[in-house]
Amino acid sequence: MSTKVFQLSALSQNDPGASDGSVLSCKIIGVCNGTLREGSFPVNENVQLPIPPGENKSAPATPTWFLIPENGLEGSFTIEVFSPTDPTYPSKTIAISETDVKNWAKVPFNNRENQIYQDGEYGIFGFAQEGPIYTITAGVLNPRKNGN
Known about the structure:
Elements: E1 6-12, E2 25-32, E3 34-36, E4 47-48, E5 64-69, E6 76-82, E7 92-97, H1 98-106, E8 125-129, E9 133-138
Parallel strand pairs: 1-9
Antiparallel strand pairs: 1-5, 2-4, 2-6, 3-5, 6-7, 8-9
């Protein structure tokens, strides 16, 4: 049976030497088998990825979407990560299903192979938690799987 809410969040680590994380954006380009709950960020619109705040500054809101699955079906999101100002930054489309996130979250932390989306391609990785909750982080310099 489907959970009540499937949560997706996205942000930028903005590591020095990585693609300029301060100019990365995302866009939810697909939502399947559910409706978005009030409080979700917009879909089909560019949303700038927040970066960690400087010292003594508060963090900006993290773009988050809350999917309420319908008819007992498992929900999914399709998100694109890109730079609207840097044409050399390759855009990356990622599909995340509720089923995958639930399965990844069951694996003990030190045994997880799911932390990195496609082995860190384009400095993007993901983290699955029970809930199901999935967080995408872009702008990471040399992302690696655990233990590598």
